[in-house]
Amino acid sequence: MELRSHRWFLRDGPAGFKSRSRMKNQGTPQQMFDGRPVIGICNTWSELTPCNAHLRILAEQVKRGVLEAGGFPLEFPVMSLGETVMRPTTMLYRNLMSMDVEESIRANPMDGVVLLTGCDKTTPAAIMGACSVNIPTIVVTGGPMLNGKFQGRDIGAGTDKWRFTDDWRAGRMSNEDYIEAETCMSRSDGHCMTMGTASSMSSVVEALGLMLPGGAAIPAVDARRRRMSHFTGNRIVEMVKEDLRLSQILTREAFENAIMVNAAIGGSTNVILHILAIAGRMGIDITLDDFDKLGSHLPLLVNLKPAGEYLMEEFYYAGGLPVVIQNMKDVLHMDALTVMGQSHAENTDGAVSYNEDVITTMDKPFQDNAGIAVLKGNICPDGAVIKPSAAEKHLMQHRGQAIVFSSLEDFHARIDDDSLEVDENSVLVMQNVGPKGFPGMPEVGNMSIPKKLLDKGVTDMVRLSDARMSGTAYGAAVLHIAPEAAVGGNFALIQSGDWIELDVPNRTLHLDVSDEELAKRRESWTPSDNHVQRGYTRIFLNHVMQADTGVDFDILVGSSGDAVAYKTDGMADAKKKS
Question: How far is 33 from 83, CA to CA, in rounded Å?
Fold first, then answer.
């Protein structure tokens, strides 16, 4: 079987000499160039990405597994995206990282690749890049942190931060306790241990079939995650020998499974953008409407924050995602192929819940119809999304007057102003925070409630934006409004005092303003100029697509395969022979 790496390492003449010789300066012996599979270990380790700061440990475990199976492991770095520290938002750089991953894989002598990821955008970015090359690929995520422990109770990263912040702003929590909670919340390696975007994406990766069964939920510091990494190294060598590629795993049925599983676990709305983008790279026709059609009617089977009570530790101890998949066997495509070379049915056979307070069955759900709802209307003709399981139920049908903020800066300047004319029935509207408007579509959609309403005990309000919301957050937030304000969508034309109707059961979001009035407003609307003239952000603005298509670049949709564009080594050989 001829492998990609043979074109580098099994060449005669100066091309092979150069490739092997330079690799030998790391102490690599000649026997490693005997034709064995070369496995790239794509590592998003970075101390600037706290969730991924332990991935060097997992990389070593993967290497052991690769060597044991007769492969040649080569670790390489790519851009890392740390949600907690990176500014202005990691979503601005997801596509850039995907380009880094794609070009690094294609340009180098890899026969298979293990993607080491963790924090929110590192997982989809790595998969997007790998999809556009389409060699045997498997994913290892860093795993969730251990449960936070604060004043005798478990607390979850992100979710409890929002609650603590509201209490602190309202004077119900002291500054000393607020600072102490920081230390108590993040007490081990790993990503957020709530069902935020990182845990949701890990679960989605397992549902897509790109991770070993049960891998999504293992705590980061549990020795079983290191053992899984070792076995992943074994398995990727086997996948190369089987020529098992992403295109064989990421079928339409695999994406449908991922959509349904994300609904049943109460997963993040961010997953929508990433699934759409990954499907676009694979040429699979997945649309925003599929999330409503396939997932919105499904019940909530996992009792995790922000929609429930528990955290990822309990999810793993209860049996993890294999139990969810087995409990959903009547609705999922159980014959879908996975990186194990087996189906989900084979992978999850015999999986049972060890704690039905954490993982339940389809006939005894924690909530009915808990999936993400897709809304349409004159505010969002191309769609918007809301996560009903994370919102107060009385707001699912609501009519109120808009309080409009034209930007994130405008919101921060006025939200706690005592003169702001707002009550619990108002609809908070934030414009120009979408893909082009910010740019980068930050996680600001769960706008903080005005302090004077917090003081009155208000805990949720209807909020509309063209931004995203952290997967750890909660509330009646309508997100991903498309077209966004910055490109002249009707969302840009809303004015304070306009009446807005939200009807989640009927999937509508309507602005009670006539078409004639909207036409008049459009005549006076002018796009804002963000004054970015150069660099990556200029590329982003020129090529980014809207939320309903995944916020990928138009020039990145699809695949270029694994072929190297210019065969310069062949030219060198020809020159030698001449």
Answer: 39
Class of 36-146+188-348 in CATH: alpha beta
What CA–CA distance (Å, rounded) separates 520 from 106? Answer: 51
Copy the structure tokens of residue 559.
């695949």
Phi, psi of 14 (to 5 degrees): -65, -30
Determine the Cα–Cα distance for residues 167 and 181; give it in Å rounded to an integer: 12
Residues 6+ apart with CB under 8 A from 323: 348, 351, 352, 353, 359
**Do 339 and 244 contact (CB within 8 A), yes or no?**
yes
Angstrom CA distances, 308 to 300, 347, 519, stand at: 9, 27, 44
Handedness of CA 452, 455, 461, 466 (dihedral sign): positive
What are φ and ψ of residue 250, in 5° steps? -85, 70
How far is it, in rounded angstroms, from Cα 42 to Cα 319? 28
In this prediction the pTM is 0.96
The number of residues making up the chain comes to 578
- Mean pLDDT in consecutive groups of 10 residues from the start of the chain, 578 residues: 95 94 96 97 98 98 98 98 95 98 98 98 98 98 97 94 91 95 95 96 98 98 98 98 98 98 96 98 98 96 95 98 98 98 98 98 94 96 94 96 97 96 98 96 96 94 97 93 97 98 98 97 88 92 98 97 75 37
Identify the CA nearest to 40 among candidates 103, 88, 82.
Answer: 103
Q: Where are the domains of the chain?
A: 1-31, 36-146+188-348, 148-187, 373-524
Secondary structure of 40-73 in HEC code, one letter for each residue: EEEECCCCCCHHHCCHHHHHHHHHHHHHHCCCEE
Q: Are 200 and 272 in contact (CB under 8 A)?
A: no
- Amino acid symbol at 52: N
DSSP 304: B
Q: Where are the beta strands (DSSP E) in 71-230?
A: 72-77, 112-117, 137-141, 148-150, 153-155
At 311, list the tokens.
């955290």
Nearest alpha carbon to residue 191 among 52, 48, 77: 52
Query: Hey, which CATH number is domain 373-524, 3.30.450.20, 3.50.30.80, 3.40.50.970, 3.40.980.10?
Result: 3.50.30.80
Sorted by sequence, the CB contacts under 8 Å of residue 511 that are 6+ apart come out as 377, 378, 379, 490, 493, 494, 498, 499, 500, 518
Q: What is the Cα–Cα distance from 114 to 44, expressed in whole angstroms?
A: 11
